[in-house]
């Protein structure tokens, strides 16, 4: 007779497989293609090495109306364009990526003198409720090769209604450390108060958080022990590859506005299975945020369990549920913060040992659609991808469908 524990485990696995079956695979590529101005431009880029198809890996996403933004970091030489979008309708599962806001803004000149609205290399972007696209530009090209620091790390903000640059804010020297690396950004804005927005940018390489105030047009760096990786949780097995990472604070998710007018920011290092939180009341006050005595204002939410390492996370304000990737499990999980976090309150909402290898990013849009991007990145970094098979996928599922029947509901 099956034990109760085994029955629950089997039921959980069946639920995960069922949810994976509901995923709508809206885009898939063997290799990325771009919407070149003409065939001659493409052939010239191929000939010069400005475009090496195998070196273009999609990593981050965000949705605004009919645009689904897709980032392509300049891990290697030959990335055609780092900031792009595809149109959701009319549907084309292998759509070519369209550079945003233009081709020119995504091309690195030979003298490295970029325009103010240019994007050198971005990992993740976010869309706020004020119709703005926030881009964290690392400014670093050919990361795994020569490492060309074309520009300073900067937040680049666009007006999505006009496709025009609003602001480029370069990080201050005090924001940066020797090993700083910025691969994410979330934006905190209250309805009708667009000019008072805050951006939170995790530094996964030097274990900190940069806070940017739109109103004051300045930034400050926050330090905390919870931003560091867990040395016991840096071992990964993904897509048949074993590797070790030391990435610190990475995934950020903001709650709805609380009674005190602030949000809760849930966060975790990538090489960790724990989840933490802090009120944005702490982060938005430079004096408090940078005061060592604020240590105890940060809280531990709980433990995700073995193999629970996550990259990206996002929170659905309607249900209050947090979604997070599960890199070692080829999956996506959910957690309802109304319940203490533990392996029993973390549920897999989708798992697929083929289609969800390395769930790199996820985002929830204003219509409660959950978008998931998987890209086999470890194979891209450490071996090579087979151009004859599907390597990159983007899925969509309604939040309500994803959590139905789970402990998150």
Automatic annotation (TrEMBL):
Keywords: Secreted, Signal. The keyword Signal applies. Its main location: secreted. Pfam families: MRJP. The keyword Signal applies. It comes from the Eukaryota. It is found in: Secreted. Residues 1-19 form the signal peptide. Belongs to the major royal jelly protein family. This is Protein yellow-like. It comes from Nicrophorus vespilloides.
